[in-house]
Amino acid sequence: MALTGIQIFKMLPKTNCGECGVPTCLAFAMNLASGKAELSACPYVSDEAREMLDEASAPPIAPVAIGAGERALKVGGETVMFRHEKTFYNPTGLGAMVTSDINPDELDKKLKEWNALQFERVGLNLRPELVVIKDVNGDASAFVSAAKKVAEESEFSLILMSDNVEVLKAGIGVCVFKKPLLYAATAENADDMGTLAKENGLPLAIKAENIDDLIVLSNKLTGMGLKNLVLDPGSREMKQAFEDQVVIRRAALKAGNRSLGFPTITFPCEMASNLDVETIIASLFIAKYAGIVVLSDFTGESVFPLLIERLNIFTDPQRPMTVTEGIYEIGAPDENSPVLVTTNFSLTYFIVSGEIEGSRVPSWLLIMDTEGLSVMTAWAAGKFSGDAVGMFVKKCGIGDKVSHKKIVIPGYAASISGEMEEELPDWEIMIGPRDASLIPKFLKEMIV
Questions:
Q1: pLDDT tens digit string along 359-397?
Q2: Within 13 Å of residue 34, how many CA atoms lie on the same side as its CB?
Q3: CA distance 64 to 313
Q4: pLDDT, tens digit, for every residue of 250-277?
Q5: Of 65, 141, 145, 248, which shows the fewest CB atoms inside 10 Å?
Q6: What are residue 293's DSSP bridge partners?
């Protein structure tokens, strides 16, 4: 980062209005300096200061937005080589490719299948985001037909892929509202492609034979005023492609090479002869360091593990996923229903609530804020102690909702029962199972 938080603060309006999401301009400046905020969040910064700060506060890998609507995708914006150093911000986009000569009925079938690929995990809806329309014969009408169908009949964002500027221009005409990524500018067509992307305000991918040529092409297009670029170093052999991804990332983050400070796109679909091997290659590039990965198809058995890998890698290691503290009703409980308590770690909540739902025993589930820690970790850290849980039970209001005074604590936290009894002398503290899978059996026996 070119400027420190104090240097940035001197150029801010110092109104302390809080509209940026933090209470003071100094705090906002510190967030800008550390890459945790964007300058656009401040509504009162002057144009002069904005111009000076835009460059200084920009992450070393520029963020690039692709698409519009529910599945709009942002790639890039990264600030570290390794997730444990801080966090990765914008998950790798997953795309599938169709050719412009595809039969309309076949495309209909694919879109229906692909739209159905949505998976719920720890309260999040996981799904792929992109469809690539590849021009294979220069037929602009076929290309337009496929692009129009994907744009209007699905929620996917698009990548329009052709080396023919006129074909791309025709495709843009029917789907510009989806803000597609144009692929790709090369040394031969850079001027025309750059002009087309600039006139339509669209992101542009650039492709070269190697990283050195990529730098030359990047400099040419940024010199034309284009800022939303996606890089393809052209490598299609897995070892070289992997090395290129690492070199580009290091050059942008460690050497401050602005020419390579953009997200990348990779094509496992062009590196393997079947989807299984493509999926393995894609898993490599999700980890290091592709902004977009393109497969030949989407199937549940290939997409689901990639989505889970992506979720794990792009979850902030310093901020566990949490649910809101409070009382959760599962299965329309009444005053006689069991009461259970656990932590607000998302995975804990969804596992426990899922087992309660599976038991078909209406219950009250109390979620206590333990800063996103699991039961064992929270107990070891003193955040799920008996007195703390007891105080939470008294304050949450569950006593007004039930006629009994029984509460079930996790088996792994059995040792807190004594302290809870002191804090809740009128309550019976019941020790639940250590394994969540035993909750249904426990609840059914409890109500007998």
A1: 999 999 999 999 889 999 999 999 999 999 999 999 999
A2: 10
A3: 19
A4: 999 999 899 999 999 999 999 999 999 9
A5: 141
A6: 94, 266
User: What is the C-alpha to C-alpha distance for residues 212 and 223, in angstroms, rounded to an integer?
Assistant: 17
Top-level class of domain 64-313: alpha beta
pLDDT band at 134 (very low <50, low <70, confident <90, very high): very high
- What pLDDT score does 2 carry? 53
Q: Where are the domains of the chain?
A: 5-57, 64-313, 326-447
**Burial code of 245-260, b = ≥16 C-beta within 10 A, e = fewer?**
beebbebbbeeebbbb
What's the CATH code, domain 326-447? 3.40.50.11600
What confidence score (pLDDT) does residue 4 get? Answer: 78
Asked if 311 and 121 touch (Cβ cutoff 8 Å), the reply is: yes
Q: Residue 322: what are its φ and ψ, rounded to 5°? A: -130, 165
Give the N- to C-terminal CA distance of the chain in Å, as an integer: 64
Residue 7: per-residue pLDDT: 85
Cα–Cα separations (whole angstroms), residue 354 to 107, 288, 348, 405, 414:
36, 34, 10, 24, 22
Q: Which one, of 26, 27, 57, 25, lies nearest residue 43 by Cα?
A: 25
Q: Which residue has the tokens 């064992």?
A: 376
Contact between 434 and 411 under an 8 Å Cβ cutoff? The reply is: yes
> In this structure, which amino acid lies at residue 255?
A
CATH entry, 5-57, from 2.50.20.10, 3.40.50.1970, 1.10.15.40, 1.25.60.10:
1.10.15.40
pTM: 0.77
With a cut of 60, say whether residue 1 has pLDDT above it.
Answer: no
Query: Is pLDDT above 80 for 317?
Result: no
